[in-house]
Design brief:
Number of strands: 9
CATH superfamily of the largest domain: ATPase, nucleotide binding domain
Number of domains: 2
Radius of gyration: 20 Å
Strand content: 15-25%
Shape: globular
CATH class of the largest domain: Alpha Beta
Bound molecules: 5'-O-[(R)-(carboxyoxy)(hydroxy)phosphoryl]adenosine, zinc ion
Order of helices and strands: EEEHHEHEHEEEHHHHEHH
CATH architecture of the largest domain: 2-Layer Sandwich
Helix content: 40-55%
Structural class: alpha/beta
Distance between the termini: 20 Å
CATH topology of the largest domain: Nucleotidyltransferase, domain 5
Number of helices: 10
Length: about 325
């Protein structure tokens, strides 16, 4: 099957074709980072307009690059939510129009299922597994007995891990999104200089909280000389990243052990973080658990993951009507 994927839930316009016969994905992304950087965050109206301008030309380029016509496809998968509603509507309307024009089946995909199944683009997933979903808007642990079944074990009580990275980066004067910059600068930082908390790490609940850590790091930053000396900047990045990764890894392995899962996975933009990937890999190896970090390209928002999720839905016989609506928020639910 050849599935066209469309992803426009936030600030990246992305289209992809996933071919289940060759197990190959071709993925294109038109980034809006420069457009939003000036505002220190995503401006929803600007995002929708940019999707509108970029989406169809991107589909054209992709199909030409892959030497495909719409008629060669077997279905269209499009992110239906959660995300910015205007941005989502651009992708959804385009997906519907293409499906109607080429008489193709359409499926709406939950963005978080896409992030989880991005792992299937990198490796054959070992299931059951516990998946740590860490993105700009989500920090959740999910038990996944098989594809299509997602049991939420717990999540953040306040900010997402990505927000903790991005908001700290903003305080440090780094560009948006800040996660990749903190990842890069933390490599030059010395560990343990600032005493940052590991919120809820020792708490029995399957829950995260990053707002206290955000306040703690803000107080540290406010106490630094101006302009902030380079080494101080690197050390703050290092300690913030260490604190976030300690909590994420700690909670993931507690749940994997409790459930006796043979595998763990990472999903979402923060899964691109080098230290998080290395840390999970080392601990999974030590515990004899299967783990393959998802390719960095498939961690942040992309349409290949949506096409992959679409392939699973379409292969299971699911079709959505052209009345399908987008949604700003909704928990990931199981299907089949
Ligand atoms: O999944 P994603 O692309 O968009 C959402 O669905 O939210 O995740 C974006 C988040 C941002 O907060 C960004 O700073 C973070 O992922 N991120 C990273 C890294 N790359 C992206 N955080 C830490 N280290 C990275 N290398
Ligand atoms: Zn995402």
């Amino acid at each position: 099957m050849k599935i066209l994927g469309i992803e426009t839930s936030c600030d990246d316009t992305s289209v992809a074709v996933y071919d289940s016969d060759t197990h190959r994905a071709a993925n294109l992304i038109s980034s809006q980072v420069d457009l939003h950087d000036h505002f220190g965050g995503v401006v929803p109206e600007l995002a929708s307009r940019a999707h509108l301008v970029n989406l169809l030309p991107l589909v054209d380029v992709l199909l030409r690059q892959e030497d495909l016509e719409l008629a060669d496809l077997d279905g269209i998968a499009v992110t239906a939510g959660p995300g910015l509603i205007g941005a989502l509507l651009v992708g959804l309307s385009t997906g519907k129009a293409l499906a109607l024009a080429a008489d193709l089946p359409l499926v709406g995909i939950h963005h978080i299922e896409g992030h989880i199944l991005a792992n299937a683009l990198t490796c054959e997933m070992v299931l059951p597994a516990v998946v740590l979903v860490v993105s700009g808007g989500h920090t959740e642990l999910i038990h996944m007995p098989r594809v299509g079944v997602y049991e939420r074990l717990g999540g953040t009580l306040d900010d997402a891990a990505g927000e903790a990275f991005d908001k700290t980066a903003k305080l440090l004067g780094l560009p948006y999104p800040g996660g990749p910059h903190i990842d890069r600068l933390a490599r030059k930082g010395r560990p343990g200089r600032f005493d940052l908390p590991r919120p809820l790490l020792k708490d029995d609940r399957c829950a995260f909280s990053f707002s206290g850590l955000k306040t703690a790091v803000r107080l540290v930053i406010e106490g630094l000389p101006r302009p902030i000396p380079e080494q101080d900047l690197w050390d703050v990045c290092r300690d913030l990243q260490d604190a976030i990764v300690d909590v994420l890894a700690g909670k993931l392995f507690v749940q994997a052990e409790r459930l006796g899962a043979p595998a763990v996975y990472l999903a979402g933009g923060v899964a691109a973080n080098g230290w998080l990937r290395d840390r999970i890999q080392a601990e999974a190896d030590c515990r004899g658990l299967a783990f393959t970090p998802p390719k960095p390209l498939y961690c942040t928002d992309n349409a290949a993951m949506i096409a992959m999720a679409g392939y699973h839905h379409l292969a299971a016989g699911r079709r959505d009507p052209l009345t399908l609506d987008s949604f700003a928020r909704a928990p990931l639910s199981s299907w089949r």
